[in-house]
Amino acid sequence: MCKGPGTTTQVETDAARLGEAYCGRRKEGKMMSSPVRTDLAAIPDAGLHADVEPVVLRDGSSVMIRPLAAGDEAAIIGWFAALGDETRYERFFATLKQLSPRTVSELARVDHVDHEAIAAVAPDGTTVAIARYIRIANPRVAEVAVAVADAWRGRGIAGMLLERLARRAQSAGIERFKALCLSTNHTIIRLLGRLGPTTIGPPVGGLVDVQIDLASRDIAQRPVENTPRA
């Protein structure tokens, strides 16, 4: 949900803890430079190598899709550095120049059951997208979020990550995703709608509550796509 007035640290912490998706539009602050690159071989549990999946995108470029390893803070820092100001605001509900160490630590605290994150990694090792869910009070429900580096948007990465995330969520016993989105953010609403039957609440302050039913999905009959959709 959108956060009210508060310190940057409070907003960052809440957004990281809840894994909230897309809200608001502002264009302030500056981009971080020098993206951090991740050496997959150096990560202790890099999602298990069997889960590292090469994918060719619609423009011919390629990425490696993998679960984010617990404690992989370098990947999160590099991913955030590649997000533009507007994308950062959509994802974190605040104009942030950088993530606090506490937020980075929380975002890296994945356990692949209650808190899952899947990343797309460019050939040079830069993490260019992360999709995640965090199970909330109701153990059958999780909040979902995704953000793609500005230079890599429009290539189908978000949809591919969300599909894989939904499959993992189902395997973990999660039956419903929820996300709060801009009512005008038709792209993310459309991508979420591909995951399963979707209910969109009435706009309130320019925002809509999106609920996605995962329970009706048949994992066996829904193969994972290796080619992004248009």
Characterization of this structure:
A hairpin with a 6-residue loop joins strand 7 and strand 8. The protein is α+β, with helices and mostly antiparallel strands and 230 residues long. It is built from six helices and eight strands; from the N terminus they run H-E-E-H-H-H-E-E-E-H-E-H-E-E. The chain has a single domain, classed as Aminopeptidase. An eight-stranded mixed beta sheet has the order 1-2-3-4-5-6-8-7, sandwiched between helices. It is globular, with a radius of gyration of 16 Å. Helix 1 runs parallel beside helix 4. It has helices spanning 8-18, 73-81, 85-92, 101-107, 157-171, 186-193, and strands at 53-56, 62-67, 115-121, 127-135, 141-148, 176-182, 198-200, 207-213. The relative contact order is 0.17.
Briefly note the structural class of the backbone.
alpha+beta
CATH architecture level-2 label: 3-Layer(aba) Sandwich
* Distance between the ends: 29 Å
Helix content: 25-40%
Summarize the biggest pleated sheet.
8 strands, mixed
